[in-house]
Amino acid sequence: MSEPTVESLRKQVDEINLQLLELLNKRATLTTQIGKLQTSQGMALYDPQREADMLTALQMANRGPFSNATISALFKEIFKASLALEEKEARTKIVVQRKTPDQNTVIELPRGVKIGDGSFQIIAGACAVESFEQMDAIGEVLASEGVQIMRGMAYKPRSSPYDFQGMGEEGLKIARQVADKYKMVVVSEIMDASQIPMFQDYVDVFWVGARNMQNSFLLKALGKIRQPVILKRHFAATLKELLYSAEYIASGGNVNIILMERGIRTFNEEVRNTLDIGAVPLLKMESHLPVIVDISHSAGRRDLANAFGRIAKASGADGLMVEVHPNPPVAMSDAKQQLYFDQFRALMAEVRAVARPEKAY
Ligand code: PEP
Ligand code: MN
């Protein structure tokens, strides 16, 4: 028998490569199937014990020439690739997850108002409804600046139970009246699922505040209605947690969700919260939902409004939210951050001068 040549040996290697390729893909098909079953049964995709057992079995069967360490390293790479594939499959099931680069949810509100259509929407109004006169004065200024979405907060989640808690249903009535007078839509914060039918009589957009971001019972209830929901990020929530909270609403059938970045708690004492502006491109990269920036509760001060407003628009967000009051120092809540009317007009002029990029990332 003649000695094998390099060519003939290489030919055998080529054949084995093809066999390995087929086996690897066959393996991937099986693990993807396992991943689907695990997801449907609510099981975690990553099972460290299963990986350890497979590695032990491989080492026991290994006759060389590869060492056990090399075999382990090679198979760990295969396990990693399979897990990545399973995770990718699982993500396609998440309703709020972006599926294609041009998938963008456009929220359609009454009066033809849209959020997420490429425009930059302004949501403005008092921190809380205090009286008809206060809201009427605000409504007039907002309308003169072309604002279409008004805050009409009647339930306030205050840090102290002794602070003003909001006007309740009476406040919602005032908000609706003023919004109708100035042809605007009204948003208002809901505290509990039991309030949904009552809110439906007055508001166009439901609002879940930072403190209720992980109230899964409220989120599930809002998944059953069809009105849009603004979901604020909790001040200690990761973006993944915010998106899972949105998923609670979306998986119930209501995909009319607007995400809102409102600042997170850090060691920075100069501001009330730290505006996490990087959240805008990251959220838009991960999700097809519109993103709005709250420039009031993030800063906690009036003198940053223009800067934060410009930054918000330049970030590629779909709008900003700002608090405005006829006489901020005597406001019943958030007196330090609500804008005077002239400051609000200045903010609008500054924001108008900034271009909104077509893409946030
Ligand atoms: C608000 O925007 O009215 C509010 C209470 O803010 P947050 O829920 O972000 O604290
Ligand atoms: Mn406020």
Give keywords:
single chain; 361 residues; elongated; binds manganese (II) ion; 11 helices; 43% helix; alpha/beta; eight-stranded parallel barrel; 2 domains; binds phosphoenolpyruvate; Chorismate Mutase Domain, subunit A; two-stranded antiparallel sheet; TIM Barrel
How would you describe this protein?
The chain has 361 residues and is of the alpha/beta class. It folds into 2 domains: 6-91, Chorismate Mutase Domain, subunit A, CATH 1.20.59.10; 107-352, Aldolase class I (TIM Barrel, Alpha-Beta Barrel), CATH 3.20.20.70. The chain has helices spanning 6-40, 48-61, 68-91, 132-144, 169-181, 196-200, 216-223, 239-250, 279-286, 305-314, 341-352, and strands at residues 107-108, 114-115, 121-125, 149-151, 185-189, 205-208, 229-232, 257-261, 291-294, 319-323. Helix 7 (216-223) packs across helix 8. The longest helix is centred in the first third of the chain and has 35 residues, at 6-40. 36% of the residues are buried. The model has no long low-confidence stretch (mean pLDDT 96). The structure holds phosphoenolpyruvate (PEP) and manganese (II) ion. The site of phosphoenolpyruvate has 9 residues, from loops.
